[in-house]
Amino acid sequence: MRELKFRAWYKEKNEMREVAMLRWENGRLMRIAGYWPGTRDNGWTDHDPLEGRYELMQFTGLLDNADNEIYESDILVVFDEDVAPVTDDGAGPMEVCNHIVRVEMRDGEWGVEIPKLDDGETGWHSLHRWKKDISNDGYEVAGNIHQNPELI
Known about the structure:
Layout: E1 6-10, E2 15-25, E3 28-35, E4 43-47, E5 54-63, E6 69-71, E7 74-78, E8 83-85, E9 94-96, E10 99-102, E11 104-106, E12 109-114, E13 123-126, H1 127-130, E14 139-144
């Protein structure tokens, strides 16, 4: 069983926060508390009204090639073993087809949408199943959509 944990993007201050506690009542988030990234000495707490002030991101249960935790809305660089032509006409040098993708939950599983390539590879890939496949050489967290939107 994987560890269930969250982080939160605090919209008012444009900062990522590590979440240690969530309290829900009647389907509404009523209280959130946690620690500042990298510390367990200095905490924070916030309470009602919270609606629209935080965006929660769930831990996927996976680590990237550098042992960084992968969360919902993270941006990954997927290292692909395939190569493709650098130019549209297919002539000239070849390069590795790494992909920049966003982690999402779809149909109950964490995954990424890979753009269509010349060889037809496209579509949704489950990170849990894909990690066990030989279809890629792994992935690394490059950032997240809140702090690094320019990556997507």
